[in-house]
Amino acid sequence: MTETLHNVDQAEISKFEELSSRWWDPHSEFKALHDINPLRLDYIARAVGGLSGKTVLDVGCGGGILSEAMALQGAAVTGIDMGEMPLRIAELHTLESGAEVSYRLVPVEVLAAEQPGSFDLVTCMEMLEHVPSPASIVDACARLVRPGGTVVFSTLNRNPKAYLFAILGAEYLLNMLPKGTHDYARFIRPAELHAWIRPTDLCVTDMSGMTYNPLTQTYHLDPNDLSVNYLVTCKRDPDA
User: Is 40 annotated to bind ligand?
Assistant: First the structure.
């Protein structure tokens, strides 16, 4: 039976544990993460008016690609994940890069109970579609950010186009991702994510899609196309 203690699907964790040694190889199974990271970083930085001096929590940080990039722009970053091996890889890579990131193996719900309202910015990228209860993750992120702070989510839409591009295309035709990386049933429609955000103190302020051109092999942000990958910016009520 799949372990779901602390809102963790151990089968999902195992997928990334097995590949963790290749996390920082830009030509490995994680090439797509390296390719989209500049776009993610720019989107996040614009959402908070610059990362320098911000306290940031990166939820589901994996091997630290985004965490390091934010730290190198001057943020004080904490990265959390439930995969032990990716966190070890992330810590080792800071010795090479010089980035200062604090990494912890801790469920986000536990950290929310420990440190509510502690961060200027919380990021949760490409994680919600890998957990048993994404609504619980959304709620924890809302509690971790300070009043007036920002939360940024990214995930995959659930529709035929997303299945075609993210699974058939990326995993089976173009070999951009390992086969079995994603479970289509866990993809999240924007309306579903909105429904999980609504009971919290967060308010959605921006949504943007991320598109891929297989001919030029480039990614772009497009606020008018949320059909496959999309990002969501939220602000916490300053009076919460």
Answer: yes
Q: How confident is the model over 132-191, as pLDDT tens digits? A: 999 999 999 999 999 999 999 999 999 999 888 888 777 666 666 767 677 889 999 999
Q: How far, in whole angstroms, is CA 38 from its chain's centroid?
A: 14
* pLDDT reported for residue 178: 67
Residue at token pair 């497009």: 222
Residues 191, 179: Cα–Cα separation, whole Å: 27
Q: Is 60 annotated as a binding residue?
A: yes
Structural Rg of the chain based on CA atoms:
17
Task: Report the DSSP pairing between strands 55-59 and 76-81.
Answer: parallel
Mean pLDDT of 16-42: 86
Angle between helix 10-18 and 84-97 (nearest 10): 40
| Tens digits of residue pLDDT in 30-69 | 888 899 999 999 999 999 999 999 999 999 999 999 999 9
Q: What tokens were used for 160?
A: 């035929």
The two three-digit tokens of residue 175, written as one number: 């070999």
Residue 125, annotated as binding a ligand? yes
Burial, 150: exposed, middle or buried (Cβ in 10 Å; 0-12, 13-18, 19+)?
A: buried
Q: What predicted TM-score, i.e. pTM, was given to this entire model?
A: 0.92
Per-residue burial over 98-121, b if 16 or more Cβ lie within 10 Å, else e, is ebebebeeebbbebbeeeeebbbb
How many whole angstroms separate alpha carbon 76 and alpha carbon 119? 10
Give the Cα separation of 209 and 231 in Å (integer).
6
CA–CA separation, 33 vs 218, rounded Å?
Answer: 12
